[in-house]
Amino acid sequence: MTTLAALNAMPASDFGAAIAPVFENAPWIAEAVAAKRPLASLTAFHREMMALVGGQSDEALVRFLRGHPRLSPDTLRKGTTAESTAEQTAAGIGALDAATIAKLNVLNAAYDDKFGYPFILAVRCASLPTMLATFERRLAATPEAERAEALMEIEAISWMRLLDRVQPAPTGSLSTHVLDTARAMPAAGLGVELWGQDASGQSICLERFTTDANGASSRDLLGQGRLRAGTYEWRYDTPTYFATKGYPTPARSFLGKISVAFSVWNPEEHFHVPLLLTPGSYMTYRGS
Amino acid sequence: MTTLAALNAMPASDFGAAIAPVFENAPWIAEAVAAKRPLASLTAFHREMMALVGGQSDEALVRFLRGHPRLSPDTLRKGTTAESTAEQTAAGIGALDAATIAKLNVLNAAYDDKFGYPFILAVRCASLPTMLATFERRLAATPEAERAEALMEIEAISWMRLLDRVQPAPTGSLSTHVLDTARAMPAAGLGVELWGQDASGQSICLERFTTDANGASSRDLLGQGRLRAGTYEWRYDTPTYFATKGYPTPARSFLGKISVAFSVWNPEEHFHVPLLLTPGSYMTYRGS
Amino acid sequence: MTTLAALNAMPASDFGAAIAPVFENAPWIAEAVAAKRPLASLTAFHREMMALVGGQSDEALVRFLRGHPRLSPDTLRKGTTAESTAEQTAAGIGALDAATIAKLNVLNAAYDDKFGYPFILAVRCASLPTMLATFERRLAATPEAERAEALMEIEAISWMRLLDRVQPAPTGSLSTHVLDTARAMPAAGLGVELWGQDASGQSICLERFTTDANGASSRDLLGQGRLRAGTYEWRYDTPTYFATKGYPTPARSFLGKISVAFSVWNPEEHFHVPLLLTPGSYMTYRGS
Amino acid sequence: MTTLAALNAMPASDFGAAIAPVFENAPWIAEAVAAKRPLASLTAFHREMMALVGGQSDEALVRFLRGHPRLSPDTLRKGTTAESTAEQTAAGIGALDAATIAKLNVLNAAYDDKFGYPFILAVRCASLPTMLATFERRLAATPEAERAEALMEIEAISWMRLLDRVQPAPTGSLSTHVLDTARAMPAAGLGVELWGQDASGQSICLERFTTDANGASSRDLLGQGRLRAGTYEWRYDTPTYFATKGYPTPARSFLGKISVAFSVWNPEEHFHVPLLLTPGSYMTYRGS
């Protein structure tokens, strides 16, 4: 894994070798973006590369799309790029049961036939049911809408591959903010935990704090490069909070501990997640 | 464990023996409510008994409150009613560390001194931090407010003891209803699971269904006497739902699976829990 | 104005004459749908007609779109269908200032040039700023996306013209339901008013009631054919409700009376509008 | 009307004369707080005075409560302080119909009889139905709870009288922030108006702006001493916003313009009012 600084400093040929696998069979993208350096963030690198993808002629774009491998056990058996092999294998494409393989074959054939290029999906983010549901929905789309979706998936795939290879800029972090909307006041003194995964994928508690007078953590969390792409979870100890505030006795309270699971797609961004809380309801959303 | 029908039919003396332990050292309550039979539900039985508690003279009420044991390792060592022993033991009162015992002693002494009766709490619903937070808050209350709280706790304790002894009426059940508020439509075709505990306290999936055209389960869940007091959890498979509907690609979606934990205090009631869902937010509440 | 029953019973030629003006220069739609009678609702009539529109060949569809008049003072000066004349005039197209006319001319020319048919918009629902904002947005769309939007506008225009000519089926109505989410209970005893417009467009109070024990009106409102397409408003007397419940003294309450404005597009549908209320917040949505 | 600076600088006797009428028949409060000067805000002055009120002995407190005039036409006829006369007159106590007077007499007599002092209410914030609903609710309260409520009303009355006499510190202001929660993004480019009252009580538009890239006004509104206690209203031009963003055609959109009415009780505070918006729902609350 390299760093942004190293990426900006290395010779163009090294840069090409380091970055080319981010897209399937399209080394020209890395070559072209090399000339744009230095860039301030992975987000900026990725935006430049996607602009190159989107700026192609219709004909070149279809050729580019056709350069992608099918999602299929056959692909794995016959061999493809190291990246796609790893991704498809991890998504279980190599271990499907016969009925699912048959279904996938039918979908793949119908898709190629309709659109003229293979079905492209960021499989690292998709469970098998999600994958099949998405496949069926997109098979029914218009060619124009489907091309837009294929490009969005390439955006997702290349972004994740970029994150595998380069340390993101340390600009992202997390925060939460709890309002006790029944009293129109910040929920001060509420115990909060932030959970994520350790290197082996085990759930672990990353941070533990009590909300300050403003109902928030007093600082941003997982900042300075500690935030990673992945899934996180806020856990709010609402029963103790309600007991402390003299809300209905715990024996009769409706809400248990509140857990909010969310995904960080871009670890260079800030993710603010407010919680609007009352003894009988809560709301959460991605804030700004 | 007996049934409502049996409770309504048994001789008054048997009724007294069966029900007296629901309150601490106050067999007269069971005796008096025996004359009100038959009653249609446990809720009705409990309401009648609490009316008797609340209808006492000031003097009798204080005597009744004084009949309750302290929350304390000393109580367990010296012996008290079987019910309180079991509850305090399960809440960990018998295994506190020395610092917590010292703190509890100070709180108990200050409380008795201020209010003239022991601190009463439905410990089955309270973790140790909740218990201490509640104790400190209530110690600061006015005598009148505190008496109201003590009665609410007695209501909770006696209700749980009643549920231990008698099968509730089969009138309660659960339901959920999911609205896709971004589109102002029901969220049809969303996978939902209902989780609870089995007899040994292990989390298990009790029901699994897909929302119908109205965004709901097509029938009430855990009805006909299957609902128990305790904690439950709805789990909504929002990522698959969003993928099926063509909402932002899973790779960039903010929300993970949604989990809503809630408590059923009275299994003779219906608990309706709507979910208002968008790709960037959700709200939940106890509906009606 | 005729009725559904009359529409179902009249000779095909009369039906054609009555219904043809619902679409611009496309009498064949009314002729074809005449054969589908009887139909149970205006909604069903409209769905059948839109299916005919959508089922045309590409070529026929473009011809149909070209049959629509431009939104322009020139159109009014040169003369067009009675319906479009009335709609454009009411939307103020005949009384635009010179700068807006110039802008509209530029937009119209660019649109025709790009898409090959005139810009179609349901102007009865659009203020001038909305109209221009929509025009600019759609001018930037892809041909395929824009064709879908044009059809959605034709759906809106024809639906409103149908409502002008035929009494809708008496199946629609309104309801509201107020939850006091801070207490996890229905908001019983809350004063509610329903406002709409009288025949001359003046705001009037149509219904006034107090929520029942379930937090709702005890019956559906404006049912049995009284609901019209148009804008309505719920007004909730939250200050009196909070005062009655002993919530923070009115002098310090944050929320004033709550007003929720909404549009009824199809008066054959039921519109349920819940309000989730606390002293410091509220949420509203189209329920089901 | 004087200023905070003048209040801090004037001789104690002038201060007493200026501030005494803030409380009914209790000039000692103004005298005692004179010695605490200088203070940084009206909020601080008021907090000091309320601390003096709350610090009285039980006996002195009851005497203080008894110093308040009844809410009654009789009070106005017989004469009372200039302040109470003005407030009761403006609240319509001098122009009640016979039935309401009779009802008020019964309530007043029962209240005095139960609590030993007159019913105290900040009538400037209460409509007649609110006033009667509050009276009935409080008549049923316990003596202790009712004393707390009476003090809260005195807090409200004295605060409003203080605001009549002294310019508040210029620390308060308003802000709003609109999130398009369906897209998990700020609602940029939304037209917003802030409405309030002019000197004669007429509704006027005080500010008009378009939300910036963060979904907010780019500066706080009504700052630097322009915020007054009173009622305000945000008006959001959601239909134009949805049209610009390509949300469902206006003809079929559910939500009309959104209006959020709220009260500013303390013009030295900041009032932040977020709006969480989707095409089918919205939520608002007092933020922080």
Helix-strand layout with pairing:
The structure is a homotetramer of 288-residue chains.
Chain A: H1 4-9, H2 12-19, H3 27-34, H4 42-54, H5 58-66, H6 73-78, H7 82-90, H8 98-115, H9 128-139, H10 143-165, E1 173-180, E2 185-186, E3 191-197, E4 203-210, E5 230-236, H11 238-245, E6 258-264, E7 270-278, E8 281-285
Parallel strand pairs in A: 1-7
Antiparallel strand pairs in A: 1-2, 3-4, 3-5, 5-6, 7-8
Helix pairs in contact in A: 2-3, 3-4, 4-10, 8-9
Strand percent estimate of chain A = 15-25%
Measured by residues with Cβ under 8 Å of the partner chain's Cβ, the largest interface is: C-D, 49 and 49 residues
Taken in chain order, the helices and strands of chain A follow as: HHHHHHHHHHEEEEEHEEE
Q: What is the residue-averaged pLDDT of chain A? A: 92
- Tell me about the largest β-sheet of chain A: 4 strands, mixed
Describe the oligomeric state of these chains in a short phrase: homotetramer
The rounded distance between the terminal residues' Cα atoms of chain A is 31 Å
Return residue spans of chain A where pLDDT drops below 50 for at least 5 consecutive residues.
none
Number of strands of chain A: 8
Rg over alpha carbons of chain A: 23 Å
Q: How many separate helices of chain A?
A: 11
Categorize the overall geometry of chain A. Answer: globular
Roughly what percent helix of chain A?
A: 40-55%
